[in-house]
Amino acid sequence: MKSMNPSPVVLAAAIALVGPSLAHAAEWKNEPFFKSSVKYDDNVRFVSDQKEDSAGVVLDLGISMINESETVETTIQPRLSFLGYASQSDLDTTDAYLDLSTRMKGLRSNLGFIVRFAHDSAISSELQDTGRVTINARRNRVAISPSWEYRLSPRNSIQLGYNYRNVQWSNNDNAGLEDNNINEVSGQFKRSLNEHDDLTLRLYQSDFESPDTGFQSTTVGASTGFVRRFSKVNSVELEAGGWNTDLSSGNGNETKSGGSFGATLVHQEEVYTYRLGLGQAVVPSSAGQVRQDRRLTGYLDYRTSPRLHWGVDALFIQAGRIGNVTTEQDRDYFAVRPFMAWDWTRKLSLSASVRFSGQTFKNTDTSSDRTELLMSLAYGKQGI
């Protein structure tokens, strides 16, 4: 049975929250952006055998409509994206996105609201999540995230949040992509120890279900976080906690528990920026399950002149099933992308990159690799 369409609820909530901004807006700023790319992909379906290569084009354009006042900040951003291949036309995809973000600031509290809508495909969304990009299954995704922050004192604050996500697939041809819903509530207490250090305590509960398969899970967790700002350009973020999840499916019921952690090192200045992160957490999957992910991420951007900069970003994911009642496959995925960019003007840039990626499904012992070359012309940047 399909889930209730949340669009009317989303629209009503968006109007209610954006209304004050529209009524008191002095002026809206419109900031268009686009990116046009040519690419070559030596394994467009990311398969282990019978690889198919192809040249292609990528077009991405949108506009950020921004309004800012003393009390309200609002951004509305529609975006269209097209990917077309010269020899594999069944993988061509035209995707549409609409994002809305608004934040209302008070003397002691802030209220935020984010809505994201996507009408895209597995080609666009599943490379990192499940690696199932062999067919052009279409996806509708709605995500709603209201939040409220209240400052108890100059050093203490609390934050309450809610996250809802609804994903519906069409023409997935038994690709293992299932409709799913997420409802998550969280509460956080933050204490500013001094001008350099922050301490946080967080509690959350996340309910996940896949209506078509009957899979359900309820995960509760708690964590402690610490932020240390060594200077204006250097900081480190640490988090450690634990979780317990109740799993229910046609294979039975099961309760599992485990630990979560995160560590991020950041350096950011005009000449070079780098970020290095490591984490482990329970995450939802487009396969209609929940799983445990371990992620290692890295990013470096070095500016050799006012206009020329180069760098590399990298990602490694080790995804594993939780318990015995889930059917999620254990999977390793990596991607490394060196790049170089020339800032022609303040908003216009040229760039070239090559991405090396690979994945291994451990349950079936199948591996695949992929190399993508990309040359791009870009104008402006997304506001959200």
Total DSSP helices: 2
* Count of the separate structural domains: 1
Shape: globular
Low-confidence runs = 1-17
CATH first level: which class? Mainly Beta
Kindly report how far apart the N and C termini lie.
Answer: 33 Å
Averaged pLDDT: 91
Structural class estimated from helices and strands: mainly beta
From the 3D coordinates, which CATH architecture would you assign?
A: Beta Barrel
Strand content: over 45%
Looking at the structure, the CATH topology is Porin
Q: What pattern of helices and strands is seen along the backbone?
A: HEEEEEHEEEEEEEEEEEEE
Report the count of strand segments: 18
Q: What radius of gyration results from the CA coordinates?
A: 22 Å
Major β-sheet annotation: 18 strands, antiparallel, barrel
What's the helical proportion of residues?
Answer: under 10%
Write the layout of secondary structure elements.
Layout: H1 7-24, E1 29-41, E2 54-68, E3 72-85, E4 93-105, E5 109-121, H2 122-129, E6 138-151, E7 156-170, E8 180-192, E9 197-210, E10 215-229, E11 234-249, E12 252-268, E13 272-284, E14 290-303, E15 308-321, E16 331-343, E17 348-361, E18 366-379
Antiparallel strand pairs: 1-2, 1-18, 2-3, 3-4, 4-5, 5-6, 6-7, 7-8, 8-9, 9-10, 10-11, 11-12, 12-13, 13-14, 14-15, 15-16, 16-17, 17-18
